[in-house]
Write a structure and sequence with these properties.
- The chain has about 525 residues and is α/β, with parallel strands linked by helices.
- Strands 7-9-10-11-8-12-13 form a seven-stranded mixed sheet, sandwiched between helices.
- The radius of gyration is 28 Å and the shape is elongated.
- The structure holds adenosine-5'-triphosphate.
- Adenosine-5'-triphosphate binds next to helix 11, helix 17 and helix 19.
- The site of adenosine-5'-triphosphate has 19 residues, from helix 11, helix 17 and helix 19.
Length: about 525
């Protein structure tokens, strides 16, 4: 049997299924790609409850499952027709679980859907339960109240370790030189496979064993790359290579301090101390001020994998499959845990919600799925969500319990602008000390980090064009030619600040000095006059 521990997500889910079956929930919808793994677990569960397990597919009909890996024939069972299958279930006088595989297409047939409702009603007074097992979610609204939906989590480290050990044993039996791994490498390979299904992991291990003729430490990257590709195929989740560190982020001292303290809460010692695992942080504020940069660098800082969830893509495509995409993405994030999940421009999901581009009901359900998950998640997935448009954020997103903290990222203050100049000059191989930074800092009052970076780049272009080294004058010229967003969007910025003053924590310590953008302030005064 698979060695899972008490906190294992799959064990928790199986316990939940166990309870629901005992409580006579008539129909459960188990969302998973992993039929074989689930069948294995359900056979154990049925045994514990003294029940029989039946399996149904449209090709083989209804047949008892007695042993795992029993050879299966086409058309071996009875009732390949879905209506016949449901009627058989109704008539059978047994105490049993009926595993209906890939039943989802038939749920779109009103006749089958109605029959399933009738059967569900009847089963409440029996010791029979229907378990719909499918990789796709098809839930006609009329069935929503009769069917309980459960996501089957991906295998955790313990399950993957069992699998990896069995792969290694099989290889070693054939050839003693085919496995050359330290314990550390083996753990790293298993860790690299987290987020995959058992079959995907098995394939990745097999590919790694074939490549190079043996399993060794080089296969860690191979399995990791395999995972990246598989995750990317989902289209909305990306395994992001963190390319920034907190040292690349200028300013935001309060936020950085907070991240430093929160990061410690991932440790087992912190859990023993009674600290909850960090949930996440919402970064709001002006564009180009380092929100995304912080999201990328926090994963590096905590040495955790970084996953990027593209909400825009969820809502831009086929909304019909969005809910399932979202569930799948969250499942993968949990599978990879501990991990950082970066949701860039979370308001895009809300825009999809509000716009007529999609079925509003489905879109809000998808967003609701995300919110509920954020509220209830137990896996160590730290969410870093960023948003520019504060005005469209719904109160339910900002409610306590979703994020540990909400930070407002404002335009950089004087000291931070200097730090940002240093970072970008040094990134381009220049020594910051050779420039009159106070002058550059003064010339960029009201500029965002991205605009300061732009000033450095513009300065470099000008110097290169004039065939000389970059000088402070180039930076000042570039700054003078740049109209910052704090000028063009002064009103938005003012509103955001007002909003944030009451609801968010400032990402930058208020003891640092930030001159209100001279130009922005002037425009606001002009308007007032
Ligand atoms: P947006 O929502 O428009 O993407 P953002 O706040 O997420 O805004 P970033 O994408 O993090 O902004 O910033 C864009 C680029 O600007 C960064 O990759 C970085 O090069 C530079 N930058 C912005 N803020 C800072 C900062 N505080 N320190 C250093 N560089 C910064």
């Amino acid at each position: 049997m698979t060695q899972t521990n008490a906190t294992s997500p799959i064990l928790r889910t199986m316990n939940e299924i166990d309870l629901m079956i005992r409580a006579r929930y008539p129909v459960l919808y188990l969302l998973t790609h992993e039929e074989a793994r689930l069948e294995h677990l359900l056979l154990e569960l049925a045994g514990r409850q003294g029940k029989q397990l039946f399996s149904w597919t449209a090709t083989r009909g209804l047949e008892p499952v007695r042993e795992l890996r029993e050879p299966r024939r086409m058309g071996g069972g009875e009732a390949t027709d879905p209506v016949d299958a449901l009627n058989h279930i109704l008539e059978k006088d047994v105490s049993a679980l009926f595993l209906l595989r890939d039943f989802h297409p038939f749920l779109e047939d009103p006749h089958v859907a109605r029959l399933l409702r009738d059967v569900a009603h009847e089963l409440k007074n029996t010791y029979k339960n229907i378990l719909l097992v499918s990789p796709r979610l098809v839930m006609p609204p009329e069935l929503e109240k009769d069917i309980t939906l459960l996501d089957i989590p991906l295998p955790d480290a313990a399950e993957l370790t069992d699998l990896f050990k069995s792969v290694c044993r099989a290889l070693y039996k054939k050839d003693k030189n085919s496995v050359a791994l330290s314990n550390r490498d083996a753990n790293a390979i298993v860790r690299a496979a987290q987020g995959l299904t058992l079959t995907e992991a098995e394939n990745a291990f097999a590919k790694a064993a074939v490549t190079g003729g043996r399993l060794d430490h080089e296969d860690v990257d191979l399995v990791l790359n395999e995972k990246k590709q598989i995750i990317r195929k989902s289209g909305i989740l990306e395994f992001y290579e963190p390319d920034a560190t907190l040292g690349d982020v200028g300013g935001l001292s309060e936020l950085k301090r907070w991240l430093g303290v929160r990061g410690k809460a991932f440790s087992p010692q912190a859990a023993c101390f009674g600290l909850p695992a960090p949930k996440g942080v919402l970064l709001l504020g002006a564009p180009g001020c380092g929100k995304s940069l912080t999201a990328k660098s926090v994963a590096q800082f905590w040495e955790l994998p970084l996953l990027r969830l593209d909400l825009g893509r969820i809502f831009s495509g086929l909304v019909g499959s969005s809910e399932q995409n979202m569930r799948q993405a969250l499942k993968v994030a949990e599978g990879v845990a501990p991990a950082v999940l970066w949701i860039d421009e979370i308001e895009k999901g809300l825009a999809g919600n509000a716009s007529g581009s999609s079925d509003g009901g489905t879109a809000s359900r998808v967003f609701g799925t995300l919110l509920t998950w954020m509220q209830e998640k137990t896996a160590n997935v730290f969410v870093v969500a960023t948003a520019n448009r504060i005005d469209i954020l719904p109160p339910e997103l900002l409610r306590r319990g979703r994020f540990d903290e909400i930070f407002f990222v404002d335009l950089p203050r004087t000291e931070s602008r200097e730090e940002i100049f240093r970072i970008h000059l040094e990134k381009r191989g220049r020594q910051a000390e050779t420039f009159d930074l106070p002058a550059a800092v003064q010339a960029t009052d009201g500029f965002s980090g991205a605009e300061i970076e732009h000033v450095v780049l513009e300065g470099l272009f000008a110097a290169f064009d004039a065939d000389r080294e970059l000088a402070t004058g180039d930076l000042l010229d570039a700054a003078a030619k740049t109209v910052p967003l704090s000028v063009t969007s002064a009103e938005d910025l003012r509103r955001s600040r007002e909003w944030a003053a009451r609801r968010a924590r400032m990402a930058e310590s208020s003891t640092e000095t930030r001159g209100v953008s001279g130009r922005a302030a002037r425009i606001e005064t002009d308007r007032a006059e």
